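Entry for NAI complex. Fields follow.
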Amino acid sequence: PNQVKTITCIGAGYVGGPTMAVIAKNCPHIRVNVVDINPERIAAWNDTDLEKLPIYEPGLKEVVAEARGRNLFFSTDVDQGIRDGQMIFISVNTPTKTYGTGKGMAADLKYVELCARQIAKVAQEDKIVVEKSTLPVRTAESIKRILQAEDTEHNFAILSNPEFLAEGTAIDDLQHADRMLIGGEEDENGQRAIEALVNVYANWIPRERLITTRVWSSELSKLTANAVLAQRVSSINAISALCERTGADVDEVAHAIGMDSRIGPKFLKASVGFGGSCFQKDILNLVYLCRHFNLPEVADYWEQVVKLNDYQKHRFAKNIVDSLFNTVSGKKITFLGWAFKKDTNDTRESAAIYVAKELLDDHAEIHVYDPKVTKEQIFKDLEYLLTQKGDCHSEGSEAMRNLLQRVTVHTSPYPAMDEAHAIAVLTEWDEFKTYDWKEIYNNMHKPAFIFDGRNILNAKELAEIGFSYKGIGKG
Ligand code: NAI
């Protein structure tokens, strides 16, 4: 049978780490190496204290505990990893470009290209190269050309195998995948490579869930999946604005339409706006591709999903300022949550960062409590946004220091809310629902406001305590 014995994954991030851990768990007969150029990240993956893994995901530490040292290995030796792996996954970051052509829109493929060149340089035998990163359509073709140009001796098959896991439920999503998509070339070499990867996943995923397609369809399916998911969020968020004007309740609307089996109930939760490293980046990438192929109407259609999301974040911040009698200057506003969603420590593109910036511009004092995000990360996020938006020229500048002076990060929730003028829920962490809201109310300035950006708290109970409660899309 067409079975690989060794797999190497380049990139030990939110995708590479959990994905390879689950492969190793389900395939004890395959040696899985995860390599990364970031030594701190690798050290954290190797830490004997499983609380120190670089990524927080429910169930991850159990899987790592089972497989690490048995058939799962983390290392900074990228070259050795490439030599060892019969199959090589590329799972490096593909952020939005911050310079040059396509700035702010296109995916930056420099890390992916570096990997391809590295593979060509050190490979000593034929390899199957798997694109796990999310990539624009036709990237596989470029990777193949680079590999073949740099190394004419060996044979490379390129597969596209996009990852559909959601952070916060990554392990469960990987273990019980709705589907696994594998795109490959139509020639015999391509088909053999597809078969080898199918044989890996077939160790735990039912065959009928393994979809094989042509490479380009697979690449485009990933961008389309994220665009459609984000579009659902922007659609319900758009309606939330209308609900607030008309007196309708967006959760009732979502429930009512979600019962229609053509629509379905999932991903219809109104909120302060979507975040995460993927939705915005992948839609902008799709928009860029459409413009490139001269389809401006299609590009504008999808771009509106991102614009609506920006509008939703802005609306939330503006509602806080308006409600607090048009000024938040010097007022203590406490953020519950900083991660872009619950059950992850990932903060990339989190709505909290944008809302915080708007309130800081209005001279608010921001206090933050998040159960899993570190103080260092929160400051890093703000510094990044402030330099990106041109508010401050460099990290550590005086303007930056002045702004960040008004941010305090707490490691426990109650002190964070002491003497606050308002509380804003930015992440839907379950623990927020269990707090003693009466005590919190007693220790706040009055009128005590709560802006629930996730509609998770009990509005009726809070109103009875005396809070001025504002949810999203509650007319
Ligand atoms: P990440 O930033 O967490 O991890 C990427 C890792 O690659 C970093 O640790 C970095 O040091 C490493 N790296 C970069 N260049 C390297 C090189 N030349 N050699 C060795 N290591 C290198 O990124 P994340 O979130 O894991 O995303 C990876 C890809 O997966 C992206 O294309 C993303 O769009 C896609 N994706 C992400 C999902 C998510 O939920 N985060 C879900 C599905 C796809």
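NOTE: The pocket of NAI is lined by residues 10-16, 36-38, 41, 78, 91-94, 111, 114-115, 133-134, 163, 165, 167, 277-278 (CB under 6 Å).
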